[in-house]
Amino acid sequence: MLVSLPMKLPIPPLPGSSKINAVGRLEVGGCDVVELAREHGTPLFIYDEQELRNRCRAYMEAFSSRSGDFEVIYASKAFSCIAICQLAAQEGLSLDAASGGELYTALAAWFPPEKIFLHGNANTASELDFALRSEVGHIVIDSLDELMELDRAASQRGRRQQVLLRVTPGIEAHTHEFIQTGTLDSKFGFPLADESALKAVAAAQKAESLELTGVHAHIGSQIFALEPYRQTVAVLADFLALAREQHGFDCRLLDLGGGLGAVYGPGDDPPAVDQLVEAVVSSVEAEIERRGLPLPRIAVEPGRSIVANAGLTAYEIETVKTVPGVRNFVAVNGGMSDNLRPMLYGANYQALIANRPLAEPAMTATVAGKHCESGDILVKAAPLPEPVPGDILVTPATGAYGYSMANNYNGQPRPAVVFVREGRARVVIRREAYEDLVRLQERLE
Ligand code: LLP
After folding, report:
1. Which residues are part of the catalytic machinery?
2. 62: how many CB neighbours lie within 10 A of its CB?
3. To which CATH superfamily is domain 50-307 assigned?
4. pLDDT tens-digit series, residues 235-290
5. What is the C-alpha separation between 250 and 296, in angstroms, rounded?
6. 368 near 376, Cβ under 8 Å?
7. Which residue from 52, 56, 72, 77 has its CB within 8 A of the most atoms of ligand 1, so it is best to mutate?
8. Is 274 exposed, middle or buried (0-12, 13-18, 19+ CB in 10 A)?
9. What is the model's pLDDT at position 440?
10. What's the pTM value of the predicted model, to 2 decimals?
């Protein structure tokens, strides 16, 4: 679904509707990116709405074309706002809320509560109560403390809450250590390596106000291989066989988490959604049947693979500085406040100039942010055509964990977000104003 612009150098992973328009500028969703920047200001997150929908549909269609019951759960931590929740609901997806705040956002979008899964390794009593009150479909239990608290709270509310148990399968997913979650040394879930997870099954079954419907595992993010998913299924199937034998537990929902990688630059080659779904479904069928277990409904929780490549960020270049013999710095009016990923994970992005994307690159530049930290670098080495202040610089593939990790460091208001489609841009998150920065603050007497 990604398009390649006819450029000589690294091909930026832009959404499907991207093209060079009649005046030689970058266009996405039928909208001229330079015009978007002029009208809505910069930095600006731009999402190709059709690309978002296509990616949701890729998951739904891949599962529908196979037999068996399934659920595609959008992990809203990747990008959470009312509009994306509406879009996910329209496309038939369920929703993973990582906190009370994401749950609130989904409910503000009128997301059907019965299709919401509340996650979290340290949910507070008030978040759990909020979820119960909202009648969410599932709560994914991460610890025995949470299990007991939820049972108590559910009984107080006179509700029987469906729950999944999050387990840690001990699988190495070959991704950045900070975004790898399924290994044994993890703060998430019940480890399968000892009796913890089996004990949790017994505890959940005993809890009168909880109904244990299944098991959840998430092995990491930005994953390019299918083998870890197959291994996870095998490990989970072993566990389910034991849980059935020892506790008569029948798993009705097997949630394999998210993690499929996105394309940030050359060399990134994640499997297609269809391949992931094929790997997951066929290994569940094989492993579950081999152990004589009933086939559960299969769920996945994609975040990044739905939103990352549908989004891009437009900045204005403020200054171009050459340190002779060292490097060329191109500084833009955003940075680590709208994209923390380079700093947190050493993530690398591409850059292009939206007002002349086809111009021959004349230099290699380091794209720096505007924050007072030397490490605030968005792109280490971008081939750019003689950049000048006022140019609109675009970093593609910023749709996941960009806005959702945005912050106000150095008093930087968070950017606006627009959805573009068929020549129309809709603001789905307004730009913060300076007043917003002090909105919650009180003066000393
Ligand atoms: N389900 C659970 C329980 C998760 O913890 C996550 C991501 C997902 C689903 C979605 O995973 P995805 O399909 O997006 O890979 N901030 C990091 C990513 C952290 C991912 C945390 N969990 C980054 O910017 O790379």
Report:
1. 372
2. 21
3. Alanine racemase (3.20.20.10)
4. 999 999 999 999 999 999 999 999 999 999 999 999 999 999 999 999 999 999 99
5. 9
6. yes
7. 77
8. middle
9. 98
10. 0.96
Cβ-count burial of 433 within 10 angstroms (0-12 exposed, 13-18 middle, 19+ buried)? exposed
DSSP alpha helix (H) spans, 91-143: 100-108, 125-133
Residue 313 reports pLDDT greater than 80? yes
- 183 versus 399: which is more confidently predicted? 399
Q: What dotted CATH number matches 19-41+310-437?
A: 2.40.37.10
Locus of tokens 């979008």: 109
Ligand 1: which of 221, 255, 277 to mutate, judged by most atoms within 8 Å of the beta carbon? 221
Q: Is the pLDDT of residue 407 over 90?
A: yes
Atom of ligand 1 nearest to the CA of 140: 3
CA pair distance 270, 222, nearest whole angstrom: 8
With beta carbons less than 8 A apart as the criterion, state whether 223 and 308 touch.
Answer: no
Domain definitions of the chain by residue range: 19-41+310-437, 50-307
**Ligand 1 site, CB within 6 A:** 75, 77-78, 96, 119, 179, 181, 218, 221-222, 257-260, 301-305, 341, 345, 401
Q: How many residues does the chain have?
A: 445
pLDDT of residue 321: 97
pLDDT at 4 over 60: no
Which atom of ligand 1 is closest in space to residue 400's alpha carbon?
A: 24
